[in-house]
Amino acid sequence: MSPVAILFLTFSVLICTGAPITVALALSSLLVMVLDPSIPMWIAIQRSYNGVDNFVLLAIPFFILSGSIMNEGGITQRLMKLALALVGHIKGGLAHVTIVVGMIFAGISGSSTAEAAALSTVFIPPMWERGYRKNFAVAITACAASLGVIIPPSILVVVYAATANISVGALLIAQALPGVLMGLSLMVFSYGISIVCNYPRESEHWLGFRALLEGVKEAILPAGVPIIIIGGITMGVFTATEAAIVATVYALFITMVVYRSLSFDKLVKVFADAGHLTAVILFCVAAASIFGWLLAFYRVPDTLTKWFLHVSTSPTVFILLVIVLFSILGTFMDAIPAIIVFTPMLLPIAKALGVHPVHMGAIVVMTMAMGLLTLPYGLCVLIACAISKFPVSKVLGILYFLMIPIFIIILVCAFFPSVVLIVPRILVPRWV
């Protein structure tokens, strides 16, 4: 049996037996290295170290930290006033408010899991009280939370950019328009469901400019995080990593000094949780780096490139296959190791076919974000169900219906690359 077959077979067996993804990647890689005398074991240490020794990855702990600080500081409540003024008068107003807050909070947190916890706590109980079906309330909250890794800042964007060696800033900016389109498409579907189910409005009419200005006043400081990040990057004031640090300092200032909603005791917990999550992510990166190096060592990317170019030379067919692959991976695999392992295998094909690396990166990130909604791995769904104490099995029907607009936007971005590339080409043409 070839080393590559042993590598994937061992990985698959470990996954099927319930081993964590990171452990499966590490053990399958180490087994192949033990069986192949041409590979010294110190390579495992070197590759794992090289995998995490990347300046771009320094943005991850600070994006996590800034989002956690905002979450613990009760920022979600402050965003509600603006969202109510914007969309509360529409049929099914609270569902639309959930989506709008999810879109704004996505520009703050960079993490869908943190957003799922925050949105589920704040919005699911009120929706139940207002007569929304319980399965719809849980499903729409989970879908809104999945935008957290699409709308910038995004941890997955940082990981992909580091893996593909492309501009973090360009990919962050490229995600903005697709993320907004996903949010708007979710609102369209929610509106249709609200009409059928007769879900209530939160106000009989639009509250007017005064209410809107009051909402902006409440939300302007928290909304400063994405403005600082995107504005600073596009104007060349700082890099994506430096932007993450500035965003963290800014989050600390507004929650501890301006609003005084975050105490020192909570801050200790926030730093501890952020440090733990960062360690988990970097462990994933280290293990996946060894696995990816072995694939490169055995020339798997070259073989795949030759095979695909023999089968098809269509960039559209390739992008559709990328969507299918990462849709399957998203059902059982964490996004970070999936990106690190499979992106280097696909990049040579993309380059040969003339697919823009930022376009491909956006498609991969959006598809893996959809994986947060597909079971058994769908973390956003599991978190929303756990917090609301609602059975996962009763959510699936409406959940998959609400995933249709998300999938449609992914397909639109696949067939029309300009949807992804137009914003970075306007704002930062030197990077694309």
Structural overview:
- The protein is mainly alpha-helical.
- It folds into two domains: 1-39, no CATH class; 55-431, no CATH class.
- Helices cover 76% and strands 0% of the residues.
- It contains 22 helices and no strands.
- The protein has helices at 3-16, 21-35, 42-52, 59-72, 75-87, 93-109, 112-129, 134-145, 155-164, 168-174, 176-197, 209-219, 224-234, 240-258, 264-297, 300-311, 315-330, 335-353, 357-370, 379-388, 396-415, 418-427.
- Helix 19 runs antiparallel to helix 21.
- It starts with a helix and ends in a 5-residue tail after the last helix.
- The model has no long low-confidence stretch (mean pLDDT 89).
Structural key phrases:
single chain; 432 residues; mainly alpha; 2 domains; 22 helices
Task: Give a short summary of the structure.
This protein has 432 residues and is an all-alpha fold. 76% of the residues lie in helices and 0% in strands.
> Can you write the helix and strand succession as a string?
HHHHHHHHHHHHHHHHHHHHHH
Runs in which pLDDT lies below 50 for 5 or more consecutive residues are: none
Q: How far do the termini sit from each other?
A: 43 Å
Q: Count the E strands.
A: 0
Q: Report the portion of residues in β strands.
A: under 5%
Helical segment count = 22
Number of domains: 2
Helical residue percent? over 70%
Radius of gyration: 22 Å
Please give the largest β-sheet. Answer: none
Q: Give the structural class.
A: mainly alpha
> What's the pLDDT, averaged over the residues?
89
Sum up the overall morphology in one term: globular
